[in-house]
Amino acid sequence: xxxxxxxxxxxxxxxxxxxxxxxxxxxxxxxxxxxxxxxxxxxxxxxxxxxxxxxxxxxxxxxxxxxxxxxxxxxxxxxxxxxxxxxxxxxx
Length: 92
Known about the structure:
The protein is mainly beta. The protein has strands at 2-4, 7-15, 23-31, 34-39, 49-60, 63-73, 78-85, 87-91. Strands 1-2-3-8 form a 4-stranded antiparallel β-sheet, with no helix packed on it. A hairpin with a 2-residue loop joins strand 5 (49-60) and strand 6.
């Protein structure tokens, strides 16, 4: 997870449960981040599992934006990331 200059980048490794053969990497880049909040006891991200993810289209300051919420399960604690972003880029 990298958050700087109103830009949030997530590198996600997805395991292929269907064939049990390796992982696939996906990069999500959220731009023009607004209202970023983080809840958790540690800010380290290393092999956290995504427990739940929600994304909904909203109107924020007269612009179409996306409200995103991630629940992550780390080895020692749960983390919640919430933010509003204007644009997302997906790189496979």
